[in-house]
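#onboarding

Welcome to the new folks! Below is a worked example of what a typical request in this channel looks like: someone posts a single protein sequence, and someone else replies with the predicted structure as tokens. Don't worry about understanding the tokens yet, we'll cover that in week two.

Example request:
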Amino acid sequence: MGAFFLFHKESKIIEQAVEDIYLRKGFKKPVDFHLGEYKLKLYKKQIVNVNNYFQKNGDYIFVIGSLFYKDLSYKQSLEILLTDFVDHRLDPNSLFGNYVILFFLKNSNLIHFCIDPSFIKNVYFNSNEKIISTDFLSITESLLDKFTLNHLALIENITTGYLISPDTYANEIQKLDKKNISSLGKIFPDIKMYQLKPDLDHQMRNCNQAIDHANQKLADYFKSVKNLTNEFGAHIGLTGGFDSRLLLMHARKHLTKLITNSFWRPNSIEYLNAKELAKIADLDFITFENTPFIKFMEEESIEKSYLFFDGQIRSQNNWNEEFNLSDYSFRIAANHFVGFHGCGGEQYRNADRMMRKITLRTYIKYEWMFRQCQDVFIDKNLQHVVFKNIENKIKRLIDIPNNKVGLPELKKIQNEIWNSANRATRVNVVNQQLFYFAPFTEYQLSQAAYWYIPCLGNAFSFQIEMMKRIDQELLNVNTNYGFNLLRGKPIKFKLVPYLFNYIPRQLFYYVYFLLKDVQKNKFNINEFQSNSHPVLLKYAREININKLGQNVHLGKNLKSFDYLLKNVQFKF
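Example response:
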């Protein structure tokens, strides 16, 4: 439920170092299990004190992450999952969440390893020492040998804010995904790997049916999670945008113990709109807007963020802000320990205004590599190497016919790569503490959304129509885009798709960054250079660090990388 560390009995690890890093991360002492040729260290969630394993007649189930099964409470879900697995009648259509499930049956030395089919749950592995864990830092701490830095991963993460699997910052550690899972049976003997994929066989006849189908899938989801939320209470993090608003509309129809909160900065448009949404919904809105911000240079704060985020760095999680500390997440939950996150909701709209196909090369360069901070590469050979690495990783996971990206390919990239490379970081982080879900990323919902693609239009119309059919009251609060959903989009929003599709991407983003005036976000380059890790400076020479400083979250995350490099045992 909270975390796990699984290793072969012949693995050369330092067990005490593993327990020490989990203790520093905020976990209590693990429960140890011997499972055939392997040993499992299993950790409860940090603030939800319920067992995450169940045994019956010598058969075991261990659950890490968050799930619910057959509309049941948490404990009942574990019990029935084990029974159904033993009886060969486990129903993936009734299983929701982001999770790893381990089954160990008394009549076999096999570990049955199941991961959610969307791979939202982060899992890392080291092949040489046969280690699998939810935690990157636990593997780095467990071994005596130093790791070699994956410099392409470092640069990809700094410049884009994302990191596509299977890369991690260490060449010796990989992230589990739908491609490498099939080969792990050879690397990890006596472990059988599964993806519990639901059956999807329904097709849409028209757009009207597609809108109703999308709403029904969400309604069914919240009906199914109701017993879990009745037990622990629920909260939704609001932004004032589209996705959390859609979740709120469905949640308040079906859940009784519900509050709202916000991770956004006070006085931002996102925060103010979220607060207004909560007021109209007549739900408590939990924030700590008057708490003093924690100073960036305080070593204790940086270490807490480093541990809380498991060393992972993505766009929008600056380690210098209290919103990214475990204490803040705990406080805004306000004893409602089932949370819902809106990542993945872009499947219900064409906010990217994709009206015609573009080359994969154009997409990667201008929608992935340069969108956050422009082209910052001084060394054009390095730019090409980073580009090819990203291209190869995307094509490894997604079929891109003729190297062209249209709306169907874009939605697959967003759903099957972008979420796990960036957005779902928050889901994994908060899952260490409590039950945390991303309903739009659920396989049953996200795969069904591919049927809606022909109905998405050139902007937001599909998702707006979904909301109109559910809760018009909450439509009357302005969106973060600056318009009211009941009154409709201003004329400029109707023109933008045509401008976006017929102006070259390079020119479009040049104008975009000029209008954005990113210079306002510049941070102190000299201070960074004088204190940063020499290896990070070495790579920074190959990219324009002054341009990087123009983007506030990437600039500050350079400092976060400093802390990572100084605290993970890399060979340089």
